[in-house]
Amino acid sequence: MDAIAAIVGALDKREMFQSIISHTGRQHAKLGVKSAHFVAFGEALIWGLQQQFGPAFTPELRQAWVVLYDVVQCGMMRAAEISDLVRARDTE
Predict the structure, then answer these.
(1) Which residues of the chain fall below pLDDT 50?
(2) Going by C-beta distance under 8 Å and a sequence separation of 6 or more, which residues neighbour residue 39?
(3) How far apart are CA 88 and CA 31, in angstroms?
(4) Nearest to 74 by CA among 12, 27, 21, 33
(5) What is the pTM of this model?
(6) Do residues 13 and 64 make contact, with C-beta atoms less than 8 angstroms apart?
(7) Which CB contacts under 8 angstroms, 24+ apart, belong to 71-77?
């Protein structure tokens, strides 16, 4: 939840936003998180927000969260892939 709060807090600070996403993606790679995990978490996140906010979670708000999570997921997966490649190269 801290990472989500940091990402949302940095929405209007592009460099910080990208930095948080990259850092978090690298940390997830170290833990063995794979793309399927990101997909499952995204679905759970949207479901959880819908449960928490009920009718206040309008279709527009849902779509905004889906778009945000897609951007975050892509950035984190890219950072995780790069981290994995660097780690593989360094072990050769």
Answers:
(1) none
(2) 73
(3) 15
(4) 21
(5) 0.83
(6) no
(7) 72/7, 72/21, 73/38, 73/39, 73/42, 75/18, 75/21, 75/22, 75/25, 76/21, 76/22, 76/24, 76/25, 76/28, 76/38, 77/25, 77/35, 77/38
